[in-house]
């Protein structure tokens, strides 16, 4: 039996609907859900004493159920199909004496003005507004004008709809321009999830007298999980909010039927502010054979650790899911702008929502475990936030790592999943002569997190590799002397500080384009300048070009200025496949200037972060043209690759010699009384170096 129209225009034809209802017979046809799903919304806006008009009633049971449940009785139903009106008059008969069915076109109704308190439309607007042709839009305008005419001031037009973008936008623009209050409800649990994927919405348009002038529009949305409406500032934002919920419903439907091949990411937003509160990644592990007890779990990432490889990369999350032993793992990252009430509070907040992401075949009422590291949600304290004209919004925050360690991090919010700088914090040392507490006193409260910077510790693996590269400095003995080192890119200052403190006679010049970063490094990361440490606030491109020009101006026998030049500078252009350094730093004319200011036996150390394979090949080819000797050290688990470039091929050394030089350098740096971390095994850092 073919009930579909031959064209969308037939939805407005009485002949089509007569044929539709004759062929369908007495079986009710429910557009967009039945009374139980719609009742929680309808009872907010329909009072028992209201006079209700149902437009395009069809043979739906909605009016009958509203009547029988005592929601209201004075209900008038209209439709353009004579067949369905006669059918419904027979079905209702004397059972519902206060309810009537009339053959009438809603575009030209016979009712007097201001006759109803409620107009209810279940799918009729969607059937009328099938496209955005001029004739269709004119028909919608006529429908809205008639609804407005027959409604009293303070009355409500309740429209049940799938909320296609053009339908929602047309309705909201029309009524909001007339001064009506517009609220959109998402209907909870609407329809059969197996047959009907898209969520159902109810537009609630409340009629007010139009105020002359430009009164602000009142536009609100009520998601299904909350009663309190959220105010939105424009029609476009309202349409976008509805579209987000439609995409989420489609995603949940897809995830409930088949495993996801690629990881799915989504944000759950705060109800009050609308800002992201949780970021979820859905990870299916084909390596895990699912059973009743290991189908599904939720993993809460401790605050501040979302940037770690295990939690912040696809491969890391895949490994996490496999090691946790669950077929589907949903990782949950917490946002620094939000407050959380511990693991129990997060579990209560997320339990209902994450179940919508459950894998196919999960038994009903299956208890889903919530996992984390150490069983808590971690510690994150934002110490400082500001905006730089060059770097944008940034934060300085303290986070708790494994065990009792705390770290301070600099994060640029334009790339919030990348830690720009990191330093370990020193545990507080008790003051000498401090009296011990008496045994009968209460136990002290937990110690406050440390705040002093541990300048001896390099948190970033790529910084350790860059320091190890200094063993390539010329001469038979790699022990540190009066080296001149140029570092382009300050960040928190950890790298230049370490070189300054451990290479006790080295003179370090730092170039930083952003004066805000010098302030951050000084105030929050323990950085300071002195006789052997100077910061030049300048564009690295301009600074190197100026130095190269000075070298060219000197007599031919004049030596170049630097033993080591280090680039650890990020790109502000996130559209390029290379985030470190900016592409201009890798152009051949500029690299020739770098070579000009580097001593013949010196080393140019570069932190390269490039995800674009072709771009990376081009960068390496350019480097080879300028520097005859090129070593590379990949950083395990990261995109970073440290390149060691030397001006002369005569300095070539095999891995054995590199290891010996690295051990000699490390031995000199590890002086008695000077802190040294075992993770600084410089020889190990250079074992994986390869010559390009």
UniProtKB/TrEMBL annotation:
Source domain of life: Eukaryota
Start and end residues of each Methyltransferase domain: 50-171
Keyword terms: Methyltransferase, Multifunctional enzyme, Transferase
PANTHER family assigned: EEF1A LYSINE AND N-TERMINAL METHYLTRANSFERASE, SAM-DEPENDENT METHYLTRANSFERASE SUPERFAMILY PROTEIN
Family: Belongs to the methyltransferase superfamily.
Source organism of this protein record: Dromas ardeola
GO biological process entries: methylation
GO-annotated molecular function: methyltransferase activity
Region of interest (Disordered), ranges: 430-450
Record-linked InterPro entries: Lys/N-term_MeTrsfase_sf, Methyltranfer_dom, SAM-dependent_MTases_sf
Protein's name in the database: eEF1A lysine and N-terminal methyltransferase
Pfam family, one: Methyltransf_31
Entry's Gene Ontology cellular component terms: cytoplasm
Gene3D superfamilies: Vaccinia Virus protein VP39
Biological classification of the source: Eukaryota, Metazoa, Chordata, Craniata, Vertebrata
Biased composition (Basic residues): 434-444
